[in-house]
Amino acid sequence: MLRLQNRLDQATLDNDRGNYYNAKDNLDKALAIAEKIDDKSSQGKIHTKIAKVQFLVNEKDQANISISKAIQLQRDNNDYGNLAITYNIKGVIHSTEREYENALEYFNSAKNLFEQENLEEYTSEVTLNEAKVFILLKRYEEAKTKLEKTIIIAKKYDQNRRLSSALIQSGKVYYALKNPKMALSQTEEGLAIAQSLKNIENINEAYLTLSDIHEKNEDYKNSHYYIKKHIHLSDSILNIKRENLVPGISGQNISNYNDAKNAQLKAQIDEVKADSAFTRITTILSIALITILSLLTLSLYKNNNIRLNTNTMLHKKNDELIVAKEKAELASKTKANFLSTVTHELRTPLYAVTGLTNMLLDEEPKEHQIPHLKSLKFSGEYLLTFINDILQINKIEANKVEIDPEHFNLKNKLENVISALSNSAKDQDTQIHFEYENGLPETFVGDQLKISQILINLLGNAIKFTKDGDIWVRAYKVDLKDNMYSLRFEIEDNGIGITKENKITCLRVSLKALYKSTENMAELV
User: Fold this and answer.
1) What is the largest CA-CA distance in the chain?
2) Architecture of domain 2-244
3) Alpha-carbon span 81 to 212, nearest angstrom
4) What's this model's pTM, rounded to 2 decimal places?
């Protein structure tokens, strides 16, 4: 672990000095150590650091691959804090490729994870990056809000380097919003902090911003002064980068290899000019073979680049699919919470209705009031049970709802359903007739709630489409085997009816959730 940490510390030091090649070398060695000791957490962090270095030296394809490896490792290990850092770098890469909406999505994901892990001090870098994207999109008010938040957090946690950058960016925003006084104040404050830290990148950006502000104020002397300082410092930064960067040489190696082979071949040709025709033919064939091998090598090199680009695209699409999956899971969770809240709120008044109904029944009501009170009690209890069933909506969607068998009186259940809907039938001037097969037992074991739901839906539809008519509700035995009854329920009416297409649609809507888990509902034990 000590060797691993030493490599990481040295890589950080090299990176801060701009020695990106040395930083990459130390990170590769640190990754080898982490893989050897099977330290998944360190592997994820190192892949993120490697991606950052690759991005700085403009190896964006390799950076995307390293980022994808880091994301996969950190998700597998629930390392959400470091995953947020990786999302932030992924957002920066998208912003440099002008994929601004993708960049903002990754910045938002990073910020949410930091807040989830109570890592507020890390959010300042994310909000600063968001502000830079909003500036590029010329959405200056949104950029201003993000920068104000960045400045507050940076001051709270003594993040002076980030504070300097945020103040300079704030100067740009105020300049765009035509507030030169605030623009000048913010930029000069950011420059002072950058100079105290000797942060040449922030100093250079402040020089350019101050030049633009002074030019806007028609102070051309100061504008010229700062633009000269900006150009001079930019040249210095460029020279440092040229000294530290070591570009990839794979393509050059192939070219050098071919040149050396061709030179060697020419020397051999000069030596054997006087040889026989057989030797000349051999030489020509050798040239052809070398040429073919050179072309084959070049072709393999190009194919490797194409495969690398394809892999990068696949990694990017995979990341987008994972983000979409997380959004869908969040939406599902939100829906479940909403259903739970609504159903709990509905149960309270229904408990009052059923409780008061029981009290009225216990107080010896008049004879003609008893059927109405029983109907009210049944309806209230049915609604309560139905609401409890709604709470299991997630189980219904997952096909995990089970039948809840219990002893109940089927005949009374059917009479209660008819009684509950009798007022609706009277409003339609419709008479309901109940036929229960003689000799059919009244007590069964089954899921009475789901039977009630189906019959109420069907009887309700019959009442809806029957005016000045009759409806027949029938229950009779179809089969009896090993004390298992198969019953048939019929609801017939002489109303106007429903079209064939609408019948199928209504039945599907009414029974869709129930049918998935109760295919054998007609069979009662």
Assistant:
1) 134
2) Alpha Horseshoe (1.25)
3) 39
4) 0.47
